[in-house]
Amino acid sequence: MRGSIVGIEDGLINAKSGTWHGILLELIDNLYASFIIGPLVVAYWRGTWNLMTDYIYPSDYATSLIISLGLGVVGHFLFHVLQPTFRRHLNPDRHRLLYYIGSRVYTEIYGTVCVNAWRGGWEMINLYTTHDVLYVVLITLSCALAMALLKGLRNISASPFVVVNDLCREYFDVPTYFKVSSSKEPGLYVLDCLFSVLVIGSLVVFVWRGLWVLLDLKLFPEDRALSAWSSVLIGYGVTGVTFSLQPLMRWACDRLTGVWRVIIADLFLFLSFIGTINVWRGVWALLDHYFLPDNRLLSDWITHSVSLLLLILLNCSNSVLVRGVYIDAEEPAGQCVVFPVYYIRLFFQKERNKKQRRLLEALGRVEYNNVTSVLLEKKPMKTEQNHQIIRNLDAVPLTIIDNPKTHGDHNSHENKQ
Questions:
Q1: Are 336 and 406 within one domain?
Q2: Residue range 151-169: average pLDDT?
Q3: CA gap 417, 409 in Å, rounded
Q4: What is the pLDDT of residues 172-183, one digit of tens each?
Q5: Beta bridge partners of residue 390, listed in sequence order
Q6: pTM of the full structure
Q7: Band (348; pLDDT cuts 50, 70, 90)
Q8: Closest of 172, 84, 70 to residue 120, by C-alpha
Q9: What span, in angstroms and rounded, lies between the C-alpha atoms of 173 and 323?
């Protein structure tokens, strides 16, 4: 679950850094990601997960999980392979309304695919393995270490440390691990997609499930409500600390290179993951415990549909998707430890860019008119008696009605006659 890095690409991070205005906007973005986008994403996943349990072969749990896993794996693979097709046929420059409707349907279908993939893998691990603490710890640490060696640990990131804005230019992008081109090497691209889905995706599920189970086993297991509230407090406490440490971590990674930079970035990302998993577990359990507990099906439908609708209206619906593979510390210098939670800052950036474009267009028109005036003053006016120059000082500085060369040729033709 990695968010858009549009802020990094557009130089947004360095904009007004260190100013009170920049710090305030960053704080608002962090609060927005933590207390609005994060709970909405968790609510969507909780509702969708439970609906899959209710509707996919509920009479046979093992079969239900196999179907979910199959839908998830095949669906992920298809959404990887069909990226160019989606970009070509759902193009906002060709048909804006078709793009908007099609892209949101894409999000709903892909979101369901993501939930099924996780539900199938997660619950099958629960079904066929033991919940012994030592076993869970060893498996979780082994998978986390494998991801770190593959430089893919950052893929465990999720809301509230990720906000994916629904941007036209990258709406359907699903990065793969080896970044193979689908057009130049289609065979290798298919293998790249399979590796990204089956290997990286599976490791992420193992790490998430392991820490979640450990919390279930050790954090007030006898009282579900107290356990849920404890997770919320721990999660948001760690989240606040992690966001606060970003400037220090950026400073450190600016000065580190090579493997040490990757190690420090991974440790920081794992700290954020502890906050993430607690926020998810806490919000999920609180919804189970307090939100329409006597009418579970209605509760699931509301959290699924209302959460997705609000995220669409907020232009952050792609935050529910678990897609793509990103490499640890691939951004330059300290930007590798900056969490992509740009929302308010992007809004201000867009408004600033609009003003700059309007100013440049206005300056361009003034410069064009000044150059035109100078050229006309220097140009001999031999045919002024046959032409009319309209000057409007209040609107357009200068407008030329005719071309002297053409009339010169016309007069020559008359003389010949």
A1: no
A2: 93
A3: 13
A4: 999 999 999 988
A5: 399
A6: 0.84
A7: confident
A8: 70
A9: 9
